[in-house]
Amino acid sequence: AQSVSQHNHHVILSEAASLELGCNYSYGGTVNLFWYVQYPGQHLQLLLKYFSGDPLVKGIKGFEAEFIKSKFSFNLRKPSVQWSDTAEYFCAVIASGGSYIPTFGRGTSLIVHP
Amino acid sequence: EAQVTQNPRYLITVTGKKLTVTCSQNMNHEYMSWYRQDPGLGLRQIYYSMNVEVTDKGDVPEGYKVSRKEKRNFPLILESPSPNQTSLYFCASSLSLAGFGEQFFGPGTRLTVL
How far off is chain B from A82, nearest CA to CA, in Å? Predict the structure, then answer.
């Protein structure tokens, strides 16, 4: 079964700092990859997704993620964070050809100080 | 408006008192699932359903039941709740798994079992 690791559990940044959140998965086959965001008190929303094609994926609100197959990674990036990016971020994987059941990472809590 | 709804949003109950959390989606999605979210553990899948009358266990099914009699509804049933089921619960739906997989989440139900 696939697993997802998010190594940064808590990240604290100042506004305008650059962000990179790590996500690694364990599955040798084809995968669909997702980043979800959960703003305080709200439900999860999709930030971006990768199914195939260009490994650099751009999502909403200036976020992007790069799929590096050789490293089994799908790190989330943003060049300049804002206070409104304070949220919890979840990486998720669906193994194509497997059970198609999504596996979520444990989440990374991001706090951005104004 | 396309959405996933859950009721109730907040519930405080006592050990052993049966309860049901409802989930409904208006997007004609085939796939629905239930997650619980606990601090430091991220999202863990409880049950999922591929379609009407097709349900299966996720990672943490103990103490929970589900049913899928209609495509739009996927209630979560706790026959005899216990304090360790105190958590934040999310229902989610997806058009289908293969090739898509983006999940739409409900607003969450915060359950406290005393």
Answer: 24
Token readout for A2 is: 């696939």
CA A78 vs. chain centroid, Å, equals 11
- Say yes or no: A73 contacts chain B, CB-CB below 8 A: no
Partners of B103 on chain A (C-beta within 8 Å) are 44, 46, 102
In 10 A of CB B107, how many CB atoms?
A: 15
pLDDT for B73-110, tens place per residue? 999 999 999 999 999 999 999 887 654 568 899 999 99
Whether A90 and chain B come into contact, CB under 8 Å, resolves to: yes
Q: What are A8-59's pLDDT values in tens digits?
A: 889 999 999 999 999 999 987 888 999 999 999 888 999 999 988 999 999 9
Q: How many CB atoms lie within 10 A of CB B38?
A: 14
The pLDDT of residue A92 is 92
Nearest chain B residue (CA) to A102: B101
A6 contacts in B (CB within 8 Å)?
A: 42
Per-position b or e across B71-86, b if 16+ CB within 10 A of its CB: bbebbbebeebeeebb
Q: A8: nearest CA in chain B? A: B40
Give pLDDT tens digits for A64-76. 999 999 999 999 9
Choose among B44, B45, B102: nearest Cβ to A46: B102
